[in-house]
């Protein structure tokens, strides 16, 4: 039961972040949605969560590629009992051709943002005597794939930051863990399908089964609801002694 808690989820106007926001709201937490846009649709998502669950849901625009906006998101949120660092982007290219600006953007959004939000959130968690930091890393925080240099580096970095955050809060009622999803069928994955179909001359079904789910032994995508459930578990009393570690939700990927 997360009643009375406020959860801030970065990058949560779609996909996994939105799924986690819904699960938190269903568990009674007030939620803050975020992305870099400020559209009617963004605010409508928050309204829908409020209408259907009765919690206070707000949308706050902040660009997670900018350190000061990351910190300002936490300031604007007021309370931040639960912080989910979820915002992320992908770019696929061999290292010599990897565009410098893509490297910088992925490191900033997928990794450095978590440092900035955590720095701003920990004093608030300490003030209210309880906290949960949940970093959405990836199977690519534990293993690698070619052509994903920036993403794999950033996600490994997030796992490292998770351990440091856990050690700095170890004696307090605050935990920090990373969830490492395998593939989840969200826009970040959808965007990779058309190019892969062309590259391998495959149908959509063949790409999903033979390329994308190739390393996921279950041959099933994890769902955003399942990731919401994992995040909600990490906020429970049962998870109080789980800190500084990773939880894989990857259909067996990292067992291979
Ligand atoms: P998604 O594209 O649906 O979600 C990404 C979110 O980040 C969106 O809400 C987007 O608006 C937001 N975002 C992007 N740039 C931002 C910025 N500059 N500032 C603020 N918000 C920004 O994809 P998703 O699959 O839901 O990804 C969420 C997280 O899960 C990412 O960190 C991703 O790396 C991770 N992940 C995804 C998968 C998967 O298979 N989908 C697997 C492992 C890890």
Short description:
The protein is of the alpha/beta class and 256 residues long.
Helices and strands in order, then pairings?
Blueprint: E1 6-9, H1 15-26, E2 30-35, H2 40-53, E3 57-61, H3 67-77, E4 82-85, H4 100-128, E5 131-136, H5 149-168, E6 174-181, H6 187-190, H7 193-200, H8 204-211, H9 224-234, E7 246-249
Parallel strand pairs: 1-2, 1-4, 2-3, 4-5, 5-6, 6-7
Helix pairs in contact: 1-9, 3-4, 4-5, 7-8
The structure holds nicotinamide-adenine-dinucleotide.
Description:
The protein is an alpha/beta fold and 256 residues long. The chain has a single domain (6-183, 222-255), classed as Rossmann fold (3-Layer(aba) Sandwich). Helices cover 46% and strands 14% of the residues. The chain contains 9 helices and 7 strands. The protein has helices at residues 15-26, 40-53, 67-77, 100-128, 149-168, 187-190, 193-200, 204-211, 224-234, and strands at residues 6-9, 30-35, 57-61, 82-85, 131-136, 174-181, 246-249. It has a 7-stranded parallel beta sheet, with helices on both faces. It is globular and about 55 Å long. The model has no long low-confidence stretch (mean pLDDT 97). The structure holds nicotinamide-adenine-dinucleotide (NAD). Nicotinamide-adenine-dinucleotide binds at residues 11-17, 35-36, 63-65, 86-89, 109-110, 136, 138, 181, 183-184, 186-189.
């Amino acid at each position: 039961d997360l009643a009375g808690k406020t959860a801030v989820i970065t990058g949560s106007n779609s996909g996994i972040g939105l799924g986690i926001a819904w699960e938190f709201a269903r568990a009674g937490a007030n939620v803050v949605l975020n992305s870099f846009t400020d559209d009617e649709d963004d605010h409508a998502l928050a309204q829908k969560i409020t209408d259907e669950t009765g919690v206070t849901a707000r949308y706050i625009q902040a660009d997670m590629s900018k350190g000061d906006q990351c910190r300002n998101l936490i300031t604007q949120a007021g309370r931040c009992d639960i912080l989910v660092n979820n915002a992320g982007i992908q770019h696929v290219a061999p290292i010599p051709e990897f565009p410098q600006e893509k490297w910088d953007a992925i490191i900033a959004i997928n990794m450095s943002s978590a440092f900035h939000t955590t720095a701003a959130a920990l004093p608030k968690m300490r003030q209210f005597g309880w906290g949960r930091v949940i970093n959405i890393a990836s199977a690519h925080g534990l293993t690698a794939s070619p052509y994903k240099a920036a993403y794999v580096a950033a996600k490994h970095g997030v796992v490292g930051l998770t351990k440091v955050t856990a050690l700095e809060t170890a004696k307090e009622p605050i935990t920090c863990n990373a969830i490492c999803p395998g593939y989840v069928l969200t826009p970040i994955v959808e965007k990779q399908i058309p190019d892969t179909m062309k590259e391998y001359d495959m149908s959509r079904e063949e790409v999903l089964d033979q390329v994308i789910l190739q390393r996921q032994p279950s041959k099933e995508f994890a769902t955003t609801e399942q990731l919401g459930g994992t995040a909600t578990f990490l906020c429970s009393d049962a998870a109080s002694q789980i800190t500084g570690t990773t939880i894989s939700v990857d259909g067996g990927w990292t067992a291979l």
